[in-house]
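Limitations
The structure tokens in this dataset are predictions for the assembled complex, not deposited experimental models. Users should treat interface geometry with appropriate caution, especially where small molecules or nucleic acid strands are included. An illustrative entry is reproduced here so readers can see what is and is not provided.
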Amino acid sequence: MRLAALLAAAAVALAAPGFAKDAPPTERDPIEQARSVKLANELRCLVCQNQSIAESNAELAVDLRRQIDEQIGAGKSDREIVDFMVARYGDFVLYRPPLKATTLLLWGGPLLLLAIGTLVGWRVLRGRQAKTDERPLTDEERGEAERLLAAARANREGA
Amino acid sequence: MIPELGQFALILALLLAVVQGTFPLAGAARGVREWMALAKPAAQGQFVFVAIAFGCLVWSFLQDDFSVLNVATNSNTRLPTAYKVAASWGSHEGSLLLWVLMMATWTVAVSLFSRHLPNEMVARVLGVMGLVSVGFLLFMLLTSNPFDRLFPPAPEGRDLNPLLQDPGMVIHPPMLYMGYVGFSVAFAFAIAALLGGKLDATWARWSRPWTTAAWCFLTIGIALGSWWAYYELGWGGWWFWDPVENASFLPWLIGTALIHSLAVTEKRGSFKSWTVLLAISAFSLSLLGTFLVRSGVLTSVHAFATDPKRGVFILAFLSVVIGGSLALFAWRAPKVGLGGRFDALSRESALLANNVLLAVAAGSVLLGTLYPLFLDALNLGKISVGPPYFDAVFAPIMAPLVFLMGVGPIARWKKAEVPDLVARLKWALGAAIGAGLAVPFLAGKWTPMIAFGLALAFWVFAASFVSVKERIRNFRGGLAARMAAQPRSYWGMLIAHVGVGVFIVGVTVVKGYETERDLRMDVGDTVTVGAHTFRFDGVRDVVGPNYRGARGDVTVSRDGKVIETLHPEKRIYTAQQMPMTEAAIDTGLFGDIYVSLGEPVDGGAWSVRVYAKPFVTWIWGGCFLMALGGALAISDRRYRVTARRESAVSANQAA
Amino acid sequence: MNKFVIPLAVFAILLAFLFVGLSLNPREVPSPLVGKAAPAFQLAQLHKPDAAFSHKDMAGKVWLLNVWASWCVACREEHPVLVDLAKANVVPIVGLNYKDKPDEGRAWLKQFGDPYLLSVMDRDGRVGIDFGVYGVPETFLIDKQGVIRFKQIGPVTRDVVNKKILPLVRELEKQS
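Predicted assembly:
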């Protein structure tokens, strides 16, 4: 297994060195650029079907990206920029749903489902050990079982 | 005349479906053999007429018959032939006809491959499928007739949506529908078992190949859809958690749980009522998906033109089919009884955990997809649930599942012990963790996400290796002989699991290492992304069969040497005046380079997006491996031995 | 309770929501600005580029702000309705010419009629963003205190004018 893992690692290493290198620096500060991209990924393009404003080429998306860049330049925090957008477009513009009273069930739902699932699974396991349909075979049933097994063996060897 | 013939064929199909859906079920309940015997001929007859109807629609498209409303809305004389055929299922009405065709296909397949099943079971299974067909045929004939006429006929068609003029449109919907509809077989088997009151390991044995076949088709369908979106939409995304994508993913998740649950029911007789519930749920989710796409309840890139009236019909249909089957379940399942016992740690419990995790994952995806609707319906405001939610919720649920994927095949049925499992798997675990820690360093960027993802994938590979090694140990002969001695169902499982590992490698590496540049390029400008340098050489005008466009020339070089020229395009399709981006992609085993044109900017320059996407092909490669594994499992000897024994038996009887 | 009934119960609840969902419109994004002060703006006028116009100029009046553009196809649909509304002289309409070329905007008004008291030019769309505009046309009804009372997303139809805008205008006029 180790050999397999090493070979895989070598393959990735041989193919990957260039892929991980960053593009040459632009005039824009990379931290600001990263913030801009991150924020754009968190906001929904309202004129598109299902894209963030980072992905979309629609005019509104381009305008909003410019807005984000300007606000970053003006020293606004991520929180302030997001609030700016939500004040104008509502919660719908958030690509990641906000955590509020009305979305508690949304964010908590999966955990709740997991808890319920685990509980049910656990109870099934424990119940299983208490009551089952098993009892030892009678002699008649044992004879039947051996007849069937012998027939199956013969069938397999013959077929 | 041909469209009328098609419509008439649909009416005949409906009548046969009614016969297929009523007499056999009544016959099975009352023991009337003649009524039960109607099932197979009715099913086969229905297939013939549905096929005729479908043929008539395709013929109308091929003949550019613009007196048929559907053809006029979705086709064009200049549309290439392959896309004329695909356009027949490109609309709501046409895709319904495709659904009905698939339904008839699966039904006729069940009627042909069920000689070894008892008569009442066949009658019930075909009967249930007949009832579902009745629903869809009625829906089509009453609200969504593909053969509606247009008077006077249009001089020219409106053309198929340019986004759909692609080989993807030719094969993605048929594959997807084969999967969706295929789960109706498992559904029918489940209902038949509940109706008959007999639910045992043999029932699971019969259901299994049908369910796995449907699952294979759905896997391929979803993978193709993802790949198509990736190369078609122009920004390199491959999964968007779009409501319609989720609608196809939900039956897939439950279908995966179902094929694992069936394994337990077949081998050990356990999980019976749970398996039945899963079978009902898988097809119910297929139906729910149909509703979501066509009713206007959710917005999506994929949604058909919406019409609440149709939505009401489908919802009524849904409530009858799903409500009816769940009511039947509530009534009959308690009598089904338990199966064999097994320990808290055993292969059964691993599979139980598999089912719990998959069900929770499906529930979470459903929750996220429908939550905006819930809030809106309760007047609590409008939110949108985008990919960040699904990504945050889905991966943590899947991670333990992937871990179990390594343990399950190694654990024994009924009773497994921790020290034993640890001893057999500790090297695999070590290799996985080691690879997860080391490989990202070697690749140039280390993050916890990448390390964890790679560790999971290597865990699957390593544990699979252990499984094979142990399994062939007890056989004699050379390596090849020992491997050939293993049943195909084993290899199917292994390859499918390895496929999951391959998929995880693809997703992890792409998400971790992809790079993108979005910039304005003048003629002669270059940009370096990853190991490649791209030079923009300008744009030429091109004219296609039903479009005109601008074709870019981008020269790609690596280490100073020119390796190829890519040609991204920006097209305007004449009929609908719709702009479209055709990305230029160089696909390789270890990754893609992807170039797409944005908009022209002043001075002859263009905005261009350049991506490097390492290992992205492993995403779909993994999916195809999963489907291959499923196909292998279906071709296992035990399903063919039964067929052979039957032909021997029937030969004996004839003699 | 029989635990086997749970799936049916869950489905029944889901069904109820889906049924309600059929009457909703998932694409409509309601504005969070309704009930809040209209954003401040000061822009050059379309027909008098040297003169500015600001929100303060409409203080104390009930008025409509209509976002339009010459490239907007749906605007042509609603334009006759606005022209008629302007003729009735019930409420002044100020146009916000959104992301348009001034020449083309002026030509469009000449061709299709000018229902506006005046139009201002929002060339780069910033004021639009402040108003939460995401699709053209959009129309805002603003009261004497400068608070947005109603937003119409999409073309204004005669139905909307008669059932929503005019009654609200009458009510708001009564306020001081």
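Some entries come with short summary sentences. For this one: Chain B has four domains: 1-161, 166-416, 422-514+621-655, 516-615.
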